[in-house]
Amino acid sequence: MRLNEVVYTDAEPVEGYGPGFFRIGGTKHAAPLVTGYKGKQSWGGYDDIDSLLALECEVDVLFIGTGDDIAHIPGGLRDALEARGFGVEVMSSPAACRTYNVLLSEGRRVALALLPVGV
Predict the structure, then answer these.
(1) What is the pLDDT of residues 13-48, one digit of tens each?
(2) CA 51 – CA 21 distance, rounded (Å)
(3) What is the CB-side half-sphere exposure of residue 70 using CA atoms within 13 A?
(4) In the chain, where do the E strands start and end?
(5) Is 1's pLDDT higher than 80?
(6) 86-115 pLDDT, tens per residue?
(7) Is 11 in contact with 37 (CB distance < 8 Å)?
(8) Cross-strand partners of 62
(9) % of residues, the chain, pLDDT over 70
(10) What is the DSSP letter of 45?
């Protein structure tokens, strides 16, 4: 079996999470937050569409982590993102972190919007 070191060149992966936080780049960040090529920033949740639309030219797929369990996002949020050409994938926050990290390691243009877990 051949093992290869994973190298992240454009953004930092999610290293861990816990009640109300995500660890990215060795630093604990309060959730909700958005992370990707532009760095990390706080996110106002589903009502903060502008923070996500600002990623328009930067990403092809936006993962939205809905907390501990998968949940529907508001239809208006999905419609606004898809109208701007985003691929939107909704899943639990832990699953979104894992998927984001895999695609990030492949050099894909992805971003991640996360609601907290374990709160």
Answers:
(1) 999 999 999 999 899 999 999 999 888 999 999 999
(2) 19
(3) 6
(4) 14-18, 21-24, 27-30, 33-36, 39-42, 61-65, 87-91, 110-114
(5) no
(6) 999 999 999 999 999 999 999 999 999 999
(7) yes
(8) 88, 111
(9) 91
(10) G
Cα→Cα distances 43→2, 7, 48, Å: 39, 27, 7
Counting Cβ atoms within 10 Å, is residue 4 exposed (0-12), middle (13-18) or buried (19+)? exposed
Residue 35: both structure tokens together: 């992370």
Distance, CA of 42 to CA of 83 (rounded, Å): 23
Amino acid at 74: P
**Side chain identity at residue 23, one-letter code:** R
**Average pLDDT rounded to a whole number, residues 50-79:** 95
